[in-house]
Design goal:
Blueprint (H helix, E strand, L loop, with lengths): L1 E6 L3 H5 L3 H8 L3 E5 L17 E5 L9 E5 L5 E4 L11 E5 L4 E6 L10 H19 L4 E6 L12 H4 L7 H12 L2 E3 H5 L9 E2 L11 E2 L2 E6 L6 E6 L11 E5 L11
Parallel strand pairs: 1-2, 7-8
Antiparallel strand pairs: 1-14, 2-4, 3-4, 5-6, 6-7, 8-12, 9-12, 10-11, 13-14
Cofactor: Mn(2+); Mg(2+)
Organism: Cohnella nanjingensis
EC number: 3.1.11.2
């Protein structure tokens, strides 16, 4: 089973930059998108009858938003954590037979950290929500988590410490989330791999020089680790200031594959 996640930074713009070609190339069972930046009826995508589409739009036009395209029909779909209090379209939860899938666009603390307090409170609620789901069945979480967790996940750790996305507080929240029973699938498989990032500033030459941050993730309940096959970061894929990330699992409805 292959799952893909991509912060497209505006789906309509990304479609004009190769989104559909990449979508077809992946052959994903589930494809998650963050920062769609559109409202219902503003785009028409034809991925065939094989895929069902689920959208969580932000109330504010041209802002935030998430979507999931899936070959596997979900048992249920949930929009946000508390629908009446989350107008930014940041979370979609799909329930499948063997697991929950949560795609998320985590709030940015802003350059001046004016939204840091909100971000930290949001992190606590989100972690609690994932733990509630995990008590029922395993969880796979993907999306733009807006934090480079470790120094290995950012090109210039020393000069960026304390900046939005690399504050001690945000990194601690990520540590607490992983400590609540989840794994970072990429680091689980590749703990020492360096210079692999998923976001780059739009400043000239930054992406060419690979001065990036790894802020897009696939996390999973730790008990799913025996089924984990691979995790990838497709740094070569353009179309957004983020690149897609993906993960592959063996059949989660079957016993774990034998370990070699």
């Amino acid at each position: 089973m292959k799952l893909v996640s991509w912060n497209v930074n505006g789906l309509r713009a990304c479609v004009n930059k190769g989104f559909n070609d990449y979508f077809a190339e992946t052959g994903a069972d589930v494809f998650c998108v963050q920062e769609t930046k559109l409202q219902e009826g503003q785009i028409s995508l034809d991925h065939g009858e094989a895929y069902g589409a689920y959208w969580n739009y932000a109330v504010k036009k041209g802002y935030s938003g998430t979507a999931v395209f899936t070959r596997i029909k979900p048992l249920s779909v949930r929009y946000g954590i508390e629908e009446d209090h989350e107008p930014e379209g940041r979370i979609l939860t799909l329930e499948f037979d063997a697991f929950y899938l949560v795609t998320v666009y985590t709030p940015n603390a802003k350059r001046d950290l004016s939204r840091l307090d909100y971000r930290l409170e949001w992190e606590d609620r989100f972690r609690g929500y994932l733990q509630e789901l995990d008590a029922v069945k395993p969880v796979i979480v993907c999306g733009d988590l807006n934090v480079a967790h470790q120094e290995i996940d950012i090109k210039n750790a020393k000069s960026n410490r304390g900046n939005s996305g690399f504050t001690d507080e945000e990194r601690d929240k990520m540590t607490r989330l992983l400590g609540a029973g989840f794994i970072d699938t990429f680091r689980h498989l590749y703990p020492d791999r360096t210079d692999v990032f998923s976001w780059w500033s739009n400043m000239p030459g930054v992406r060419d020089r690979n001065v990036g941050w790894r802020i897009d993730y696939f996390l999973a309940s730790a008990r799913l680790a025996p089924w984990l096959v691979d995790a990838r970061i497709d740094c070569h894929v353009m179309g957004s200031d983020h690149c897609p990330v993906s993960v592959e699992f063996a059949d989660l409805t079957a016993p774990p594959p034998a370990q070699v």
